[in-house]
Each structure stands twice: as C-alpha cells, then as structure tokens.
Specification:
Layout lengths: L2 H18 L9 H13 L3 H12 L6 H17 L3 H14 L4 H13 L7 H13 L3 H13 L7 H13 L3 H9 L11 H13 L4 H11 L11 H13 L5 H11 L7 H13 L3 H13 L7 H13 L3 H12 L4 H15 L4 H13 L8 H14 L3 H13 L3 H13 L6 H19 L7
Length: 454
Amino acid sequence: MSRSRIKLSAALFLGACLLFVGLPATALDARALIERATELIDAEDYDLARNYLAPALIDPYLNHAERSRAYYFRGYTFNVQDMPVSALRDYNRALEFNPRNSVALVAVGVAHMLGRGTSRDQVLGYEYFQQAAALEYVPAYFHIGRALLFGTGVDKNVPEARQFLEKAADDGHVSAMNHLAASYRQFNVAQPQPEIAKAWYDKAVNAGSRQALMYLAYMYANGEFSHSGEAQPEQAVDLFQQALDAGLPGAAVNLAHAYLTGEGVARDEKKAFTLYQLAAQSAQPGSFIGLGHVYEFGIGVAQNLQLAQQWYERAAEEGSAQAATRLVSFYLQKADEASHEAAVRWSRLAAQSGDARAQNDYAWLLATSKFAHLRNGTLALDAAHKAVAKNPSAPYLDTLAAAYAEVGDFEQAVVTQQRAIAAIGSHAENDQQALRNDLERRLELYRRNQAWRE
C-alpha cells in the first residue's frame, strides 16, 4: 500500500474517532485539537480535554515533538484526577517521542520521587531532574535544589542546594524562594541566618506567595529572630492575620490558638471558637482538634462531650496522635468491652506517631486490659521498650514491667519494677509516695507470678 493510501486511511480513522467522541468530523486539525485541550485544562475540564487529545494523538501528521506535548497534557489530566499509573504511562510516552521534553522529564522525576504510579525511587527521580536541568528548565533547578536541601535521592548539601534554588528563584520561581529561605533556618543548618531567610520570604510574598506569610509568622512564633530564642507572638499574630486576609484558611487555626491562649493578642474564647469553625469549613485538620478541645471543656461554647468526641475522631482520622489520645481517655471512661476495644484501636494509631507517651499508653492497655482478647504481651513489650528507650522514667518502666508480666516473664518483671521504683526520685516530692505505693503493689504481684489487671 502506498504512503498516500496509508495516510488517507489514518485520516479516515481519525474522522471516525472524532465522530465517536462527539466532535465534528471536519475538525481534522490535530494541532487545533491540542490547543483546545489546553484551554479545557486551564478551565479544569479534564475529561473533555482528554476527548480532544485522543484523536489528536493518532493523527499521522503530527511530528514527534507535537505528539510528545499532547501525551504530556493527557498525562497531566490523569495526574490531577489522581490516576497516577495512567499519568506516568503518558509521561513516559511523551519521552519516547521527545526525550528532550523537559516538562515530561520533571513530571516523571516527581512520580519516582513520590512513588506515584510506580515504586518510589528517589535516586532515579533525581536523575530525571538532572536531565531536565541540563536543558536549562527552571523548575528542574528547583527540584534539584529541594532534593539537595533535604537529602532526597542525593546526599544532603545545603550550599549546593542554594545554588540551584537561587537560579530558580532569580527566574521568579516562588517555591524556590520559600525553600531558599528555609535553607537559612535553624532546622536546616547549624548556624541559622534568619534575616536572610526573611529577605527571601519577603520576596516570595511580593511574588504572590501567601504561604510565605505563614512561614514568617512561624519564625516569629518560634523565636527565630530573637537572640534569646524568645517568641514574638504579636508579630506572629499580625502575619497570621495577613495570611488569613489573603485567603489562606489554615491561618485561622493559628489565630484561634492565639485567641484561646492570649498569646500575642487579648484572649477571646468566642472569637477562637469562630475561627476554628471557619478553618473547619475548609477542612483544616488543626481545626478539628481545636473544636474537640473547646467542646470538651466548654471554652467559648457550651460543653458538649458528644460533639467533642466527633471532632476528635475526625482529627484522629487525619492522623492527629493528640486527638487519638483524647479519644482513648473518652472510651476508657466507659466500662463496656466495645468501648475498651475502641480505646485500644485509637491508642494504636497514636502510638504509630512515635511519641513516647503514646507508645507507653498503648503498651499499658495491651498489657493490663481486663478484657483478655484485648491483651497482647508481645506487642506490649515492643511498644514499652520503644517508650523506655526515649524516656526511662518510673511510669514507663512500670509499663515495661507489666508487659513482661503479661508474657509470663516474671523475673524480668520484678527486675524492671525495681528499676521503676529506683527512678521515682525524679518526680515531684508530693507525687513520690503515691507513685511508690502503686509500683510496690504491682511488684508484690509479680513476685507471686501474677500479672496486673486494670
């Protein structure tokens, strides 16, 4: 078959595809279809954008660069709609047709960095960023700088990170400005330079970054501008308010806390409650635990334990260990088995945060529950050891001893409980005797080969 016949057949097939997706059969200009698709992407109509791209991708008249561009756009629509496997497939197709497609290179790099649509491989992700940077693609400079700043896919190197971030920031890349500012802060370097950080955050604010206002507010709240490390809450509150006024709902959580505690502003419990409600309307996780707290204790609103529990549950589902710990307390106040089972479930979630107190509380429940099917000595020992490794205090050693008793190792339970009693001296004098009495009562049980039950 001649080349002209092949192209004619492909054109007829393209016309059929256009009819199938509801587009006029005369619209055979694939380039126009791609441009229309980009307009639809800007309008966030991703499904219809793909309808326009589908026939364009099989047009035999497109050159490799154009086809690569179209595949990238379709991959982008998949990615935005949380279909990472399809997105990565199209990004890779884009690179098959044009290995120098810098936008697709970065997209594939991000996918490997985050493990979206594939297994996480940060080293490979970094290599894709390097390929895009070799093509002088500005966002690639940002991604390389970020990787070097945090040591993802490459050894951490703050001075080198700044070089790449500055190249991107000088070209107007706002996220690069924010990361460059972060490179001068105390959590990234031994010798922080807060004034340089502030200068870059100010540039980011001027470039339209609302988040930079939040970062500056945190710097004042953390005392990063003070030689003594003393917080400057008034300046922090002012910046949080600016961020909220600029349309950043997360700032409402910080402002609510300030009004609740009176830090940097006159205390106003009702205003704190209103701000938590405002933040909750935008599903800000910090607002959930805030609302749980005010409802639990009736701060600025009538006390309502049922609503408090509902908000704590929503916060815990978002990963808040603090909220999960409050839920444990709620459920343990009830005597029924189902409530104690819920307490163990929420306690497990809190312990996953790595917090020593949460791990200790989880171990205690597993070792001492009055309901046999809720006890698990092996898991209790593991959690208790983790807690003691972080804080070998008397209460945590007491939990470890209870875990040893639960697995039947009473010899270690006795030894560990004796260590707990010896560690009591670190507690306040008026608490020491009560704690000693509790520990010695359990010690006598362990000496008689009996486990402790709540």
